[in-house]
Amino acid sequence: MKLLIIEDEAGAAAQLTAMLQAQVKGAEIMAVIDSVEEAVRYLSSRPDIDLIFLDIYLSDGISFDIFRDLRIDTPVIFTTAYDQYAIRAFELNSIDYLLKPLRAEQLQSALDKYRQRKQQVDAAMIATIRQMMGGNNSWKKNFLIPFKDRLIPVPADAFAYFETSNGIVRGIQFDKKMHHMEETLEELAEKLDPALFYRANRQYLVSRRAIVDVQYYFNGRLYLNLAVPPAEKVLVSKAKAGDFKAWMGSI
Questions:
Q1: Domain count, the chain
Q2: From the CB of residue 92, how many other CB atoms can be counted at a distance below 10 Å?
Q3: How far apart are CA 192 and CA 132, in angstroms?
Q4: Domain of 239, in residue numbers
């Protein structure tokens, strides 16, 4: 994730940098800027930035002046010691408004909001593109399953889920028939229509039609209740929960 920090207090900038590097895998701090003038100059070049952390008071003025001079589409998380600007901040492209001193759990909550918003936007964009293109006809529609001296044709939508265990991939149909698959779970996820199948975790690839309901589970995870129950619980991690819910609601 490419991050921009706009903060005029060196200590606060250093603390935020350390917290982001601890909480965001692969975080890249593209720049640390301390003034409105420098921020306008930097952002005018349209840099490739995923998220901006922005203090309210900078060395040469108030950060809202940046938005007066530029249109900024990049999501923003405000960080400040003052709470009186919260309403104005949310009128802009703001994800969250964090009061200093920053706490790790406070920052994590803001980052989760950003990820959820991004996942919802990405899912909507994919659905729009698919609609504009009239759908993708290249997704795998059928499988030829080897059985003794024969090949059995099985439609992709006949499968409730695919699972992997000890390097063996099995496809389970809605009628509970089980087949050993030649593809890995990764290959199946690439070949099957992502509107119809979702990679819930490293072990399961599930059909949308197989999901009876979704229950909230421990530690922010989701439990998928499938029409054909597997031997183990199908859980979606807290990190993927927002993406999964966006996928479920995208069509």
A1: 2
A2: 15
A3: 19
A4: 142-248
